[in-house]
Amino acid sequence: MINWSKSVEVVFSPTREIRVISNLHDAAQCLLHKWPSKTGKAYSKARTACLNALEGHVPAFYAREAFVAAATEVNILRSA
Questions:
Q1: Distance between CA atoms of residues 14 and 45, nearest Å
Q2: How many Cα atoms are found within 13 Å in the side-chain-facing hemisphere of 64?
Q3: How many CB atoms are located within 10 Å of the residue 80 CB?
Q4: pLDDT of amino acid 15
Q5: Over 90: is that where the pLDDT of 9 sits?
Q6: 8 in Cβ contact with 77 (< 8 Å)
Q7: By residue range, what is the domain housing residue 11?
Q8: Which 3 state secondary structure label does DSSP give 80?
Q9: Cβ atoms 11, 17 nearer than 8 A
Q10: pLDDT confidence of residue 80
Q11: Mean pLDDT (whole number) for 49-62
Q12: DSSP-derived secondary structure for 24-70
C-alpha cells in the first residue's frame, strides 16, 4: 500500500458520509466504487493516475493531485 504524505477528505451525499483517503488503494477503490459521477475529465484522469501509480508508472503525489482535482470537479472535497 502506498501512503500519501497528507490525507484527502471527501464527503458523499445524501448521508454526508466522510471518507478519509490516505493511500492509493483507498483512492482507487473510492473512484471505482463510490464516486458520484463516472464522467468528467478530472475523474478519468484521476482513475488512470491512481491505477498507474499502483503499478509504479507514475509517482503517488501525481495521483493524489489528480484525485483532489476529481473531488473538486464533483464538489465532494472536504479538505486536501
A1: 25
A2: 17
A3: 16
A4: 82
A5: yes
A6: yes
A7: 3-79
A8: coil
A9: yes
A10: 79
A11: 94
A12: HHHHHHHHHHT-S-S-SHHHHHHHHHHHHHHTTSS-HHHHHHHHHHH
Residue listed under C-alpha cell 509517482? 59
Structural domain count, the chain: 1
The set of cell numbers assigned to 49 is 493516475
What are the pLDDT digits (tens) for 10-54? 998 888 889 999 999 999 999 999 999 998 999 999 999 999 999
Residue 16 has φ and ψ, to the nearest 5°, of: 65, 30
- The answer to whether residue 3 scores a pLDDT higher than 90 is no
Take residue 18 and report the three cell numbers written for it.
466522510
The single residue listed with the C-alpha cell 464533483 is 74
List the beta bridge partners of residue 3.
23
Amino acid (one-letter) located at 76:
I
Q: What's the Cα-to-Cα distance from 47 to each of 3, 15, 63, rounded to whole Å?
A: 17, 24, 8
What b/e string do you get for 32-41 counting C-beta neighbours within 10 Å, with b at 16 or more? Answer: eeebeeeeee
